[in-house]
Queue: 3 jobs
Job 1
Amino acid sequence: MNRQPIAVALLALRHTLLGRDAPPGRRLLARWPRLDRYATPVGLLAVLGLFLITLTVESEWGLPTPIALLFAAMTVAPLLALPRRPLLAWRLTVLALLVCTFNAPADQSWPWTPPLALGSIAVLAVVVGRVDRPVLVWVVAISTVPVLALVDPDNRVPVLLLLGALAIVGDLIRRNRLSRHALAAQTEQSEREQERRAVLEERTRIAREMHDVVAHHMSLIAVQAETAPYRLTDVPAPAAAEFVAIASSARDALTDMRRLLGVLRSESSGPQTAPQPDLADLDALVDTARRAGLPVTLDAGPADDGRVPAPVGLAAYRIVQEGLANAARHAGGAAVRVTVRAGHSSLEVRVENSPADARPTADGGPGHGLTGMRERATSLGGTFTAGPLPDGGYAVAAELPYDAEGGDR
């Protein structure tokens, strides 16, 4: 025998009779602050009026004044507790229905005063919309006890049907409220996620541009400073030491910048639409690398034959720029060949260097260059590969389609 449903039912019964109260609902006039401030005094006046009406009716039934006062207080007590303690209000209502029946004359077919009956319906209507379903079942079941025990058999069926209708409507209201709360929570979470993602995208964009632009020039500074004593003749010893210091400072700056990029960078970013260099700027980029002492050969077609979209041109420029920076940092003295081929539907970019004949000009710690190149290629729907060559050199290659949706990120 499965005892779990029984245990759940018993726990729900315990909660119904002795457990914590249901949370209060939203104030009825919360959307109208000017009216809401009068809700409490008007409600108190209404309860006072109900108290006086109940007292009058019970006095006409011939009850002693102390008992009439007690029964009138028990009639209005649930309404006072209802706004903040709905479950407590229902418990007081059941108690009042059981106790206050003794004041009805013998010739009355209805055992309660009209204020008590109407107040009980109002309390039950609020409670069934505030409690969970297991508690709701017990609330309705226990509410039928006074009806079955005290109401005339001819009047029981309408009352029981009313209780059933209240239970169904209350459950629907509760489910609708929970759905709205869940939707609101999901919407809020989605908005926070969008805000967080927007921040990450902007940080990634900044990180990429810092890496593509600043790291490239810093690498060239390091290369120029280290090779200057060998390229220039009759360099005084103090000047040679100064070149060494410049190269060391440039390498330290690159290391610090990589740490900063590790903080800024994330796995995704959004489109970058600001004006950027393109294929027409490759010659100037290669000339700068040559002046820094990097032997570079450029093999490219026309700078712009009208087929290469601007995002593809920008991605190609950044890939070449990062490829030259990597060669300068990790393959000192190696010959570098840059190949750019514009096909019918895609642009092919390749940067390869021969084996290094000098020690690297920067430490071998992990950077973000390959990750940035791969992101630029994949954001355009293209492909990217990088790896060592059989002769000991290294190559990066990308194929960038023209018609891919999106743009450089």
Note: The chain has a mean pLDDT of 77.
Job 2
Amino acid sequence: MWTPRHVLVTASAQAEPHGRAVVERLVAAGVEDVRLLDGDRLPPLRGEDERATYARAKRTLAVVTSAASKRRPTPIPPSADFSFPIAEGCPGHCQYCYLAGSLAGPPITRVYADLPRVLAGLDEVVGTGSVTSGTAERGHEGTTFEASCYTDPLAIEHVTGSLAATITHFGTHDWPGPVQLRLTTKYDDVDGLLHLPHGGRTRVRASVNVREVERFEGGTARVGARLRALGRLARAGYPVGLTIAPIMPVQDWRERYAELLDEAAAQLPAGADVTVECITHRFTPKSKDVQLGWYPRTKLDLEESTRSRKHGRFGAVKYVYDKDTMRELRTWFEAAVADRLPAARHLYWT
């Protein structure tokens, strides 16, 4: 489990009951450098170079309050109707991190002290989504909310308590319509989640991959441990899922990914509610620059000349595998998932 070495607490966060509870958890966890700020501006964390800045930021947790623009639920296809923030930033060291190009400034982890205010604003968008709400394929999921768009909430749960509070809110709140909370994690410390009143309204997905890709995932739980944790959650009544990402056509990829699916099938109990999401490796020019700054010796394939150049929303450029590779991967995965996890629902391929 990750415990920060440095903690910064803004003045507004200190005024929030959840913010004060987070500080108490941090002190109980043995964090000695807890700095209570007089205002809401975080001090600069820049070091002598990019690596020094990265290292200090990854050891730092900031307890802050959310801006109104952050609290507004945001559409997040193809995963869910909306995302909302309980935290931002991640203590993991995944060399392929797609979020590297999305977060501004040093990669400090921020946890939101005004969590009750964030959760209170979700009712107004129930029933208005376009990914699951009202659709024939996924309408039974209700309005879906992603709690981990810019973080891994389980990675920091033991020092925040935010995920347990969110799961409890989704499980016990009187919603104006059917809802589902969704989160993805690369960690395995699920003890604190097993006995929560989740009401079957939270789907926990494990982000999993083959060993040749797992080696790029520093500071996370091993894939086998993630799958065992997922099995425990399924036996506790949670809907669960596999997020196979980022898929890479490594050497002997068919055999390696077949072994991964077989391992998942062995850990999940009969009758479990399981989904599968498949996401291939991609990068943007900005994320590539950031990744190479953080991990200058990475062996990750970031060669643009062998990729297809795509334009996403708002004209953003990203590099994905060429059409033939994507077709071969998709054809194999759709057949393999159906064969090895026949009861699972394959939600999407991207």
Note: The chain has a mean pLDDT of 94.
Job 3
Amino acid sequence: MSLPSLQDFKRIVIKVGSSLLVDSKRGEARRDWLHALVDDLAELHGAGADILVVSSGAVALGRSVLGLPQGPLKLEDSQAAASVGQIALSRIWAEAFAKRGIVAGQILVTWQDTEERRRYLNARETVSRLLALRAAPVINENDTVATAEIRYGDNDRLAARVATMASADLLILLSDITGLYDAPPAQNPDAKLIPVVPRITAEIEAFAGGAASELSRGGMRTKIEAGKIATSGGAHMVIADGRQNNPVGRIAKGAPCTWFLTPSTPVKARKKWIAGSLAPQGVVTIDDGAARALASGASLLPAGVTAVEGDFSRGDSVIVRDAHGGEIGRGLVGYDIGMARKVIGRNSRHIADVLGVEGRTEMIHRDDLVLAGDPIE
């Protein structure tokens, strides 16, 4: 089975763990390693790919600055360490990207930002705008406010959610292990690396182990969970050894790693989710001109909407009906019902005057819309 080439991907999420980024003995960032990694990312960026980084390391850096002891931290100490460490972490990434002519943008998220639809859409739009401006978002869980009840607890699954949210087609998990083995390699010298996983089965899940290091919260089990999320969202995933310099460049040159493949694409996976996984909360009726515009690939603008029904909030799923009452699609609406009633039929230039604040151009963005006949399988 031929493996994909990194040059084939248009939007790539790279997850960097604490054990790679932070020298645990000195409590400092491994700057030489980081700059070598950013060399790899700059090369992909220069070839036209969008680059997103999900970076651990804030707590590990902050605990060193604050002189906190090794081992598990109390919640308040962990939050304090994250507060101090996040400043250092963002500066390190910003400087490394800037030396290669790339602007970095910081995004701090919690579990709610990737799981609740309204906040999910806000985060997605921020990411999309940064990428459109050719910036490189650097994303981390907001450990300064996250608690056990509202956190991911590991950046493997967070990275997979980010990949899905950003419609990425590749997720790279850099780790302190080469990939997925058929047995624990530290215990079994005959363990064999699995180079490609066409589908995550019960057998593949059984290969997962526990956490591998003090600084890292995620082990192979969380990486398999991340693989489920990413591949369901239409992204391929790679687990690779990140300990050597230029780890992404090494993947491109065929270094040993494990590829998790998906039969889908981000667009098809998202459309399938919108079409079948969400219960519609309302109805949006459009005129014939808007129906023709949607059929040609446009977004739905308020000017083409003639009526709205239901009790929906921004980000909810709604049914789109044509002027004759027929259902022509479903989508995620960009307005609450109250605001939607005020802007329907209005030209986008007048929305700010009607609402008193700057509104969104689209009632439903094309990326959040599934029309009857759209390919989703």
Note: Residues 11-264 form a domain with the Carbamate kinase fold (CATH 3.40.1160.10).
